[in-house]
Amino acid sequence: MTDTRDLPGLKLRLEAAFHLKSVLEGKPFAPITPDRLAESRDRALANRMVTTALRRHGQIDAVFRQVLAKGVPQRAGILEAVLRIAVVQLLWLDDIPAHSAIHLAVESARADKRAGRFDRLVNGVLRSVQRGTGQFQALGNDLLIPAWLATQWTGTYGADAVARFAEILVQSPPLDLTLKAPDPDLVAALGGQPVLGPTVRLMERDAAVADLAGFAEGKWWVQDVSAALPARLLNATKGEKILDLCAAPGGKTAQLASAGADVTALDISADRMERVRANLGRLGLDAEIVVADALDYAQGPVFDAVLLDAPCSATGTFRRHPEVLLHRNAQGIAERVALQRKMLAHAASLLKPGGRLVYCVCSLEADEGEAQMAWVRSNLPELEALRVVADDLDGWGTSLTPQGAVRLIPSMALPNGIDGGLDGFFIARFVKKAR
């Protein structure tokens, strides 16, 4: 077995391969942390390799079909991940020499007991990829989105939108921040662009999030522009008793607390809620933290408003989480739809008469969005749709549906010509009828 200390660059490639392997097996992507790779440059490169492999997954599949006649060998440890990382280096990371990519891929395979017996295969396959570089780099973006999703989304949003989705998928997304309070000087210090409401977008950055201006002082938190809209549409006021269901990672809780509301933040994950607690502490904000299953939380109709960011397929987040395109299927979406309906009914039971409910999902699936709004109309007569209008969004009416809900898609043009796309979201607002 190769001693990883003797070969520069091998450790980070092995870390990338093991990380990618876990994602291919169904785990969500999380950036490689300093305890795994101490050097920030090594972490940045390893994370870039993994995320590019996920974004280009469909094109890499097409490459494999041409250079691996029998497919990727099974029960071969990290072999598939090693090959995917190396194909990324050969075709899309121009700053890495081809000979180095091939050599380190072979050594990565040799460093793994199961993959090591395929070292010659790795060398031969990657040299074939190198010879076909021009051909493989010309592979179309139509390979990027799984066929079943592409068909579904084309029917819903049109072929042009789906083509744009694919273009956005292979781009590194910008960083969106929600400001705790308006601060033009902070926006300038960040080098950001105001997008909508309290959202500021950083198209590029050369520092870690924790090193950006205003972080240590608790002046902002990371939150996509789409994710900032549901809490805004709740129109929270000082002293209102508000429940944030499925609250982690906590951006919406922070928005509601910033408005002066008395917020109860609930989520089933204790670990995630510890991070919410820590972030609220950094921001100087307060909320009651509850770790529980939302469907078991029974307080009676005591809340002035409920924000339900329901568990969903999360297909709208593919810009930042490309692995969702690999992990989702029709059955899983149907299961989430059923859960969302239970949660909608339960959320309604927690509202006072006259109380407001905002339902949202970071999904592009109509079954989790528009169809759920229709389901509420037919099955929860105590709830009445409360239309969202352009004035609720600073005059930005592009996202409004005829039913008065909000449908956001990644290809949608943002106000002021801001680039970079946005997460797909559906947001509907209701009021509980007075008795």
UniProtKB/TrEMBL annotation:
A Pfam family matched in the record? Methyltr_RsmB-F
**Occurrences of domain SAM-dependent MTase RsmB/NOP-type (ranges):** 137-433
List GO molecular-function terms, semicolon-separated.
Answer: RNA binding; RNA methyltransferase activity
Which InterPro entries does this UniProt record tie to the protein?
A: MeTrfase_RsmB-F_NOP2_cat, MeTrfase_RsmB-F_NOP2_dom, NusB-like_sf, NusB_RsmB_TIM44, RCMT, RsmB/NOL1/NOP2-like_CS, SAM-dependent_MTases_sf
Indicate the residues that form the catalytic site: C362 (nucleophile)
Q: Which family does it belong to?
A: Belongs to the class I-like SAM-binding methyltransferase superfamily. RsmB/NOP family.
Name the UniProt record assigns to this protein: 16S rRNA m(5)C 967 methyltransferase
Q: Which organism is it from?
A: Pelagibacterium halotolerans (strain DSM 22347 / JCM 15775 / CGMCC 1.7692 / B2)
